[in-house]
UniProtKB/TrEMBL annotation:
Gene3D superfamilies: 1.25.10.90. This is DNA alkylation repair protein. It comes from Candidatus Wirthbacteria bacterium CG2_30_54_11. InterPro entries: ARM-type_fold, DNA_alkylation. It holds the Pfam family DNA_alkylation.
Amino acid sequence: MTAKSITDTLDSLADTRQAANLARFFKTGPGQYGAGDHFLGLKMPVIRMVAKQYRELNFAELADLLASGIHEYRMTALIILTMQYARASEQRKRKIYEFYLDHRKGINNWDLVDVTTPRIVGDFLLHHPGKRSLLYRYAQEGTLWERRIAIIATSAILNAGQFQDTFAISDILLHDPHDLIHKAVGWMLREVGKRDQAAEEQFLASRYQKMPRTMLRYAIEKFEENKRQNYLKHNK
C-alpha cells in the first residue's frame, strides 16, 4: 500500500466537470479562502470507498497525501486516519491525534476540518480534558483553519453534555472577521441548543445583539419562529 497506488485509483475516478463545480464551490479563485486548491471531482462516497481499501496505510504515505495540492488526496488521507483512530488502542489514538495536528497545514478547507476534526481531535480531547488549552490557543492565535478546528472540535465534547468549551471558544471567536468562523460558531451553538436550549439562550442573552448576523442565524435556526424573529429584530 502506497500513496501512489491511492492517487492512481483516485485519478482513475476523476470527473472533470464535477471538478470545475467543486473548484467554484470551495472558492479556489485568487484571494479566496481555497485559493490554489485543485479537485478531481470526486464525491464523498467514492472517497470513503477508496479510503476503506487503503485504511492500513502508514503515516509516511499519509503524510505524502496530506502534502498534495489535490483536495481529494488530502481528504482520503484524513478519512483513513479517522478509520484508524476509531479502532486504535489508546496509545495509537494519541499518535494519530499528534500526527493529525502535525500535518494540519494540509487540513485547509472547511470540509476537511468538519468531516474529520471531531472524530480525532474532538474525541481525543473529550477524554483528555487537560489538553484542551490547544483549542484556546488556536482560537486566539491561529490561522483560519486552526480557528475552525478549535470550534468544530468541541462538537465531540458538547455531544457528551459538556458545553463550557464551546461557549468559551465561541466567546473568543465572537467577533472573528471571517464568515466561515461565524458559520462554524453558530453551528456549534445550535448543536448545544438542540441538547439544552436554555443553556444556549443563557449564553446568547448578553451577546446576541452584537453577534455577526450569520452567526446568530445559524445559532437560532431551530428556535420557534416568533422567538427567532425576536432575536433577529434586536441584532445590530
